[in-house]
Amino acid sequence: MNDTFRYRLQQNPIIAGVKNPDDIDAALASSCSTIFLLCGNIFNLKEIVQKAKKAKKMIFLHVDLIEGFSRDAVAVRYIAQEICPDGIISTKNSQLKAARELGLLTVQRLFIVDSLSIQTTVKSASLVRPDTVEILPGIMPRITKQLAQELEVPVIVGGLVSTQSDIQNALESGALGVSTSCKELWNVKN
Question: CATH 3.30.230.10: does it fit domain 3-185?
Answer without folding.
Answer: no
